[in-house]
Amino acid sequence: MDASFTIVPYSDTYKDAFRSLNEEWITKYFQIEEMDRVALHHPKEYILDKGGYIAVALINREPVGVCALIPCQYDGYDFELSKMGVSPKAQGKGIGKLLGQHIIDKAKQLGAQRIFLESNRKLAPALSLYKKLGFKEMTKISSPYARSDIQMELTIYTA
């Protein structure tokens, strides 16, 4: 990655990018669902105000990737890794891995023990990335997403 790459915390400056980078991949493979609308149109209220975090990957100050850490409603999980999207023009450059690692590091800073995520088996590159980051497939819990057909977890050891 070149020197013009950086990951910054979300601010309102990136509201449109957060929404559009996610809508881009969701509409390519699936349909926008109600939970998507809530998170993507109200990231401050739905994610940040609840103690969550959003990372924005920039190349030459242009947003090319996003990922959120949302406080998790499920017992035994501190956060959900969610809303990860990388622009097609920036894919294949390791940005997703850097974003994922950044989010995991942030979760550690926030004292998280376990992180959860939902995905779809159709998204093979994403699943491969999650496995490289240490996520393991888990048994299904109730999902608000029709497209979710796989769930994964990461146990963070804070020794």
Automatic annotation (TrEMBL):
GO-annotated molecular function: acyltransferase activity, transferring groups other than amino-acyl groups
Domain of life of the native organism: Bacteria
Domain N-acetyltransferase: 16-157
Keywords: Acyltransferase, Transferase
Any Pfam family: Acetyltransf_1
Protein's UniProt name: GCN5-related N-acetyltransferase
Protein species of origin: Allomuricauda ruestringensis (strain DSM 13258 / CIP 107369 / LMG 19739 / B1)
